[in-house]
Each structure stands twice: as structure tokens, then as C-alpha cells.
Amino acid sequence: MPDSAFVIFIIFGVVWIVMGAVAVIALFKSEGQKLRFDKWGLLVTIPIIVPIVIVLLYQVIRPLIF
């Protein structure tokens, strides 16, 4: 039961991330721009996504190790 607040916080964060991604895509599509991901997009995205994935994997694996 003490983890329920954490789960609600994570779900709330995921909802905001999805809403932001949809808003950016809708903004680009409304201006008629083609969606493309080049090396500069990866340069911005990878440092944001990799730490999030590492932390979430650590939280999943931690109970199995200790």
C-alpha cells in the first residue's frame, strides 16, 4: 500500500509525457512539416531517454538482487 502513491506519480508523469509528445507532433503536422528524425534528434533524445530507462530497470532488478 505505501507504493500506491509512487505508482500514481509515475502514471501521472507518463500521461504528461504522452500528452507532450502528441502536442509536438500535432504542432508539426499543423504547419505541414514532415516528421523526420535525424542525427540531431537522436543527440537530444538519447541523453534524455537512456537515464530514465536505466533507473527504471534498476528499480525492477533491485528486489531480485538483494
The unreliable regions are none
**What is the typical, i.e. mean, pLDDT?**
82
**Strand composition percent:** under 5%
User: Between the first and last Cα atoms, what is the distance in angstroms?
Assistant: 21 Å
| Tally of individual helices | 2
Helical content stands at: over 70%
**Count of β-strands:** 0
Textual characterization of the structure:
- This is Cardiolipin synthase N-terminal domain-containing protein.
- The chain crosses the membrane at residues 6-28, 40-61.
- The mean pLDDT is 82.
- The chain is mainly alpha-helical and 66 residues long.
- It has helices spanning 4-30, 39-65.
Strand and helix map with partners:
Elements: H1 4-30, H2 39-65
What does this entry show, briefly?
Keywords: Membrane, Transmembrane, Transmembrane helix. The chain is mainly α. It contains 2 helices and no strands.
Summary keywords:
2 helices; 66 residues; mainly alpha; 2 domains
